Amino acid sequence: MRRRDLSLFLLLLTAFAAGAGGQEMSFEEYEPKSTLVVPQHEVQRAKYPFIDVHSHQRRTMSPEQVRALVADMDRLNMAVMVNLSGGSGDDLRAGHAALKGAFPSRFVIFANADLTKIDEPGFGERAAQQLENDVRAGARGLKIFKNLGMFLRDATGTRVPANDPRLDPIWQKCAELGIPVLIHTGEPAPFWEAHDRFNERWLELKEFPNRKRATPEFASFEQTMGEMFDLFRRHPKTTFIAAHLAWLGNDLGRLGRLLDELPNVYTEIGAVLAELGRQPRAARAFMIRYQDRVLFGKDTWSAAEYPVYFRTLETADEYFDYYRKRHAFWKLYGLELPDEVLKKIYYRNALRIIPGIDASSFPK
């Protein structure tokens, strides 16, 4: 064989070996199939009707889209969906009419506050009055997005922390009206860590480099979260729901101490299920101990992803997939929570702190 032909043959052989044998691939391509043989109990429908306290829906849905959404809810056994993207003023009224028009008992709307006008004189009082108007129009809570404490800046260019006193009238109004505040401040702690081989969110940060927070425009993770915790302390009469397990799902002991200290604080499990499912014994003990303080939430709407939540909460299954590899490359394990704990997480805790939900359709 001539040298040129031999070189070409070797090149083709190398390419074939790489493709057929899988010796060369990126981490993103690696999708191993488990050979583990264990009992499987996929759960397509929640054991009890549940209230999803963390969902986001468009305010311009057509009647046909709303009916399709309710059909998906029925298949999942979702009794009530809380739409946190309710807006304010005319937007809230339009969204309220679109979602609750034909299905008045299936949706709850939370208002949103426009914090970009924080520098204007009397901002806090006007925002509180607008919130009161929104509650009269049907809102049953207030959702604060993660711009507060991270991205929002005042006229001087200074980052606005969650505990900024200019916002105090809003929290005081929530206490007066008896409505909860579901607040998302911060992000996973690894977003602030070096993007290296030790970072367990390496894949997500590679795919979404704009999620890196170890840059001068952001405060540290500890400062960002500490400001929110200080807000909770300064307003003990206001009920707060710290979204995403307060980004402490990887440190349930610390989260438990926070809940012990602050009886006005609840939390929910939206988008952090993988934190619970990788530590089933510790997570089960946590959920039992704090069964009165944890609510069911999912965050991004995808009907196909809910069964992973049901399986994690209800079964003792081992080593099954989370639905988003970029969030968690590890496998999940079921917590097999007791029925009384499931009922509290699925609906009882939400019924206790969110006004305006018809409790008659839920089991006692």
Explain this structure to me?
With 364 residues, this protein is α/β, with parallel strands linked by helices. 38% of the residues lie in helices and 9% in strands. The strands form 2 sheets. Strands 4-5-6-7-8-9 form a 6-stranded parallel β-sheet. Strands 1-2-3 form a 3-stranded parallel β-sheet. Helix 3 links the parallel strand 2 and strand 3 (107-109). Helix 4 (123-136) runs parallel beside helix 5. The radius of gyration is 23 Å and the shape is globular. The termini are far apart. The model is unreliable at 8-17 (pLDDT under 50).
Key terms:
364 residues; alpha/beta; six-stranded parallel beta sheet; three-stranded parallel beta sheet; 12 helices; 38% helix; globular
Topology:
Layout: H1 3-21, E1 50-55, H2 63-76, E2 78-83, H3 89-100, E3 107-109, E4 111-112, H4 123-136, E5 142-144, H5 168-177, E6 181-183, H6 202-207, H7 221-234, E7 240-242, H8 252-261, E8 265-268, H9 273-277, H10 280-289, E9 294-295, H11 306-314, H12 339-353
Parallel strand pairs: 1-2, 2-3, 4-5, 5-6, 6-7, 7-8, 8-9
Helix pairs in contact: 4-5
Helix run count? 12
Residue share in helix: 25-40%
Shape: globular
Strand order of the largest sheet: 4-5-6-7-8-9
Order of helices and strands: HEHEHEEHEHEHHEHEHHEHH
- Say what oligomer this is: single chain
The proportion of residues in beta strands is: 5-15%
Overview in brief:
With 364 residues, the protein is α/β, with parallel strands linked by helices. The chain has helices spanning 3-21, 63-76, 89-100, 123-136, 168-177, 202-207, 221-234, 252-261, 273-277, 280-289, 306-314, 339-353, and strands spanning 50-55, 78-83, 107-109, 111-112, 142-144, 181-183, 240-242, 265-268, 294-295. Helix 4 (123-136) runs parallel beside helix 5.
